[in-house]
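ERR on first pass: missing label on line 2. Operator R.T. fixed the label and resubmitted. Corrected input:
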Amino acid sequence: MASDAPLLEIDSLFKAFGGVRAIEDVTFSIQPKTITGLIGPNGAGKTTLFNLITGIFPADSGTIRLKGQPVNGKAVHDLVKMGIARTFQNVELFSSMSVLENILVGLHSRTTCGLLGSVLKTPRIRNEERMARQKASELLEFVGLSDHADRKSGNLPFGWQRLLELARALASEPDLILLDEPAAGLNMSETDMLGELIQNIRKQGVTVLLVEHDMALTMRVCDQIIVLDRGRKIAEGPPRAVQSDEAVMAAYLGKPK
Amino acid sequence: MIRTDTHTIACIVFAAAALATGILIDDAYYLQVLIFIGINTLLALSLNMLMGYAGQISLGHAAFYGIGAYTTAILSTTYNLSPWLALPIAIFAAVTVAYIVGIPTLRLTGYYLGMGTLGFGMIVSIIFREWYSVTGGASGFVGIPPLEIGSFSFDTDQRYFFLVWGVVLFFFIICRRIVDSRVGRALRAIHDGEHAAAAVGVNTAAMKLSIFVLSAAMASLAGFLYAHQVFFISPETFSFLASIRIVTMVVIGGMASIWGSLLGASLLTLLPEWLHAFADYEMMVYGLVLMLVMIFLPQGLTRGIIDLYEKSRKNRNK
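pass 2 clean. output:
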């Protein structure tokens, strides 16, 4: 793949819920190994757009392509296999399972052991399990949770739960990771750490699409920002340009007559 | 890793205990009770895989138990087929039915799945009762042959005891391996959060279906063992109440606990034996026990007892 071919292309996407037009004619593309921020007032359609990209529900019309491949209508778990991972606005961990096990579930799409394999425990399966545990430990180290591998994930402090969810999403070896308000509920130093982490994720070659209300963070880490308002894209460009865009200010602060 | 090791030790201790029990106990009544505990343990374990680990409620599990029992009864008695040939057919029948029922019902969640499987269980139990020409109807099916391998017959209670508990031990090992694997983790992930499980790449529909099918196969095997032990089966054994009894075993013993299935099944098999006086109020006693466990030990007896033990040890250390 040429480095200038976009990783994600969204073309005239529409989605309505009953009479509410949640996404209306949205078009944009994301270059590989970039960090893109998706911002907009509440109800602008950011989470809807996330859900469309990750296949939670289908678009009414328009296309979404990943590495040139259309992804419309594919099941959520197939999209994970294709290389799209996500985190949730309200951290959704497997709370009864340990920190390490959460990551191991994250590796599900990169491992193969089935019912029969688990019973027979062939050398190949044992080997796969060993590799998976190794990889999971590395990911825990990446987000700084190595010392808590055996703790029950539901008992972790909230900030760590966010980090764990991020590591779990990375476990599926995504090309594109969608982060839904990763800084929500974090204090300032945790947010700073998160910013660094997001940049480290990009360094590993993963493209990031970020919904975030913390503007300082968004402006600092993003290469490109897309602004949605009432389901439409109203601006797009580098952080600085977007910040001074009139349509954006109007959307956030109300339109001066 | 440590957990796997303790499980291996537990299995060895358990096997030794079962062996000793089988050799030492000579009393036909006790042996029979123990055989029923074994069969019920297998049933509880089958439902626990579905309910305790994957978090999918089935209120119709006795249907698969019945399919196993009736298939082998009809084939080995009416058609004179060897029970060993009837066994794969009985399991295949349960698996097929589970597949057909599972595809639409496993799309349902929570209460709806409960209602769906409840309806299925009732339909199957009505078929057992009303299809008189094949199943013998409400009066039951008589004359099921004992199990034999060549000239060796499992006709004494002691032999049957070893057969049943051998099977139980085998499934303890199998289920533990599944639970500790990628599949088991995916199942527990579905239990904790189905959306999140899908979002990390678990094909939740396929995973739920495969554990439902496995669970049905195990229940069918339990039905097979039951039929060739009692030689006579009737529809009540596989009714709605039986399904509830299996659910009670799982809940009381402990959800998502393999040894809990053994404890729950033992308790619910022994309880009616101890409470003969309550015969007519059996369901009320179950209800009461279920309520008390839910209020005081919501994680089931196994977890509850471990928690109580740890708490008392902590108190002593203070």
